[in-house]
Design a protein that fits this description.
Blueprint (H helix, E strand, L loop, with lengths): L1 H6 L9 E3 L10 H20 L5 E3 L13
Length: about 70
C-alpha cells in the first residue's frame, strides 16, 4: 500500500549556514543589526558555493563603519 511505499523511501537533507559572531562590546541598533544580517546572508551564499553541508562565518565591518556621520 502507499504508506509502506513512502516508508521505504530515502530522503536526503542538507544544511548550509552563514553565521556571524557579535562581540558584546558592540552596540546593537537598526544599522548594526542590518550589517550583521547582511554579513550572515553573504556567508550563507559563500557556504552554498562551497557545496552542501557547509557553514561559513561572516566578517563584520570595522566599528568605524557603524558610526552615523549625521
Amino acid at each position: 500500500d502507499y504508506a509502506d511505499e513512502v516508508a521505504h523511501q530515502v530522503t536526503t537533507v542538507t544544511f548550509s549556514a552563514g553565521v556571524v559572531h557579535w562581540p558584546e562590546h558592540r552596540a546593537i541598533n537598526s544599522n548594526t543589526l542590518y550589517q550583521m544580517m547582511k554579513a550572515a546572508d553573504l556567508a550563507l551564499y559563500q557556504a552554498k558555493e562551497h557545496g552542501r553541508n557547509c557553514t561559513q562565518v561572516g566578517i563584520l565591518p570595522p566599528i568605524t563603519e557603524y558610526v552615523n556621520s549625521e
